[in-house]
């Protein structure tokens, strides 16, 4: 992967995610932060896909995106669903789903079943990753409160 390819991926993903958020009627003030978050998650996925695989890259990107979405929702005082939509857009396996349908229609059932399996696994990985991100953030806040109480009791 060279720099030009990376920049093209960044710009294309930013435009695509902002367009997706416009179609979903997201507040105008949240388009840029949501687009940048979605772009960052796409680039993380794109970088991780090479050394790992699609499933692991999707899982890690979903966890990181979920944590950042929660933080941004607090900072911008906006429902977290706005940012979750921004990270969902680049992770949903649209092309693989299309290819699965194409395999079924053309009678290539063996490839279709393989592709369906991957789509289902990716859907599960995305949902588990997004839920895990919320849990990780809650555990972190709980740990911070515990440390604060421990420091208060020590004094």
From TrEMBL:
Stored Pfam families: ThrE_2 (PF12821)
Compartments where located: Cell membrane
Record keywords, A-Z: Cell inner membrane, Cell membrane, Membrane, Transmembrane, Transmembrane helix
Membrane topology, record value: Multi-pass membrane protein
Domain Threonine/Serine exporter ThrE: residue ranges: 9-133
One of the GO BP terms on file: succinate transport
Record-stated family: Belongs to the ThrE exporter (TC 2.A.79) family.
Protein name: Threonine/Serine exporter ThrE domain-containing protein
Species of the source: Streptococcus australis ATCC 700641
Source lineage: Bacteria, Bacillati, Bacillota, Bacilli, Lactobacillales
